[in-house]
Design goal:
Helix content is about 45%, strand content about 25%. The chain is an alpha/beta fold.
């Protein structure tokens, strides 16, 4: 069923709580939806990740169990913050709440959150134990679909997409390079340093567009902005040279965000003259992934270490890429 579409559901939850309930969600939604989850508040990018997931999701599903979650510096947990974001974004929200027969069983912060959620206009389904979850989900999910129709969604995964989602970044790029090498063998290859190990050459003067998000402050109000911006490959290469000798995918993302930020501020202020500040410029994740794949295919970056997690993979700029900039500078001054 290649044309069937998945909905994206973001699960709002406390870290290290209700693990069996979360497992039940994963099983129930395996053939129905694509799930993302709140991550631990101990991680520095937990809030940003949660906000981005809620921005892109079709529905939000909140699990209120026995824990309020790890409290952040701002005094609230990621679960509480994600709930507020989902309400602010007017996301269709259904809530599974565990029954607590004695207030002493839960913390004061969780009690306050439960009172807040109960007073507001929410679909709340109560459960006593993990055994109640599956039948409750059937009722809750289909009631939510009937009440809140959302068009589009994620394309149902094919076997190739499932394989791709289970791979590490290193395995994905190894497949890409293997395909490109097989393609190169079918054509004559000149003995030229510029073509050495390059599957998809890049011209430095060529430009391309990427999407980005930002926050614009106008008259004391905060606005989320999504726009496109034009970059050149030479700008990308200069940005890569400025970062440390080895870097993670997050390091690459930060470098591109720094490149985008001043351009985005000019672009947004030109279009919105009353904006007095622009912050949190972020390249769209799909465009970042595509950019990283092209950098590998062009032999601009290569893996130095890799692991089962994205954060364990470290990259470095190749000698070929460094030489490209030097050669281009020499040609420019001739």
């Amino acid at each position: 069923m290649p044309n069937r579409r998945y909905h994206h559901i973001h699960v709002i939850c406390a870290d290290n709580d209700q693990s069996l309930v979360l497992d039940s969600l994963a099983i129930f939604f395996q053939a129905r939806a694509f799930l993302t989850y709140d991550v631990s508040s101990k991680l520095p990018k937990a809030s940003l990740y949660g906000r981005q997931c809620i921005d892109s999701c079709d529905y939000a599903l909140m699990i209120i169990g026995d824990s309020y979650g790890t409290v952040q510096k701002n005094g609230v947990s990621q679960m509480h913050l994600s709930y507020l974001n989902a309400k602010a974004k007017l996301k269709p929200l259904l809530i599974l709440a565990k029954k607590h027969h004695h207030e002493l069983d839960v913390s004061r912060q969780l009690q306050e959150l439960i009172k807040t959620v109960s007073k507001q206009d929410n679909q709340i389904y109560y459960y006593d134990s993990e055994d109640d979850i599956e039948p409750l989900l059937v009722q809750a999910y289909y009631n939510t679909l009937a009440s809140n129709r959302v068009e589009g969604g994620w394309i149902r995964a094919t076997e190739e997409m499932i394989k791709f989602s289970n791979q590490t970044v290193a395995e994905r790029f190894a497949d890409i390079l293997a395909i490109n090498k097989n393609t190169k063998k079918q054509a004559p290859v000149e003995d030229n340093f510029a073509d050495d190990n390059v599957s998809q050459p890049i011209v430095l003067t060529e430009t391309f567009t990427v999407k980005y998000t930002a926050q614009a402050y106008e008259g004391g109000n905060l606005k989320d902005v999504t726009r496109e911006i034009t970059l050149s490959w030479q700008e990308i290469l200069v940005a890569l040279i400025k970062i440390p000798s080895t870097f993670s995918s997050y390091g690459l993302q930060n470098a591109i965000n720094r490149l985008i930020a001043p351009k985005a501020e000019i672009d947004i202020k030109n279009d919105m003259p009353n904006v007095h500040a622009v912050s949190r410029c972020q390249i769209a994740q799909d465009d970042l992934n595509n950019l990283q794949r092209q950098l590998v295919s062009a032999n601009w970056i290569q893996l130095t270490t890799y692991g089962t997690r994205l954060s364990q993979e470290l990259w470095k700029l190749t000698f070929y890429a460094k030489n490209l900039l030097v050669s281009n500078s020499s040609q420019t001054h001739e």
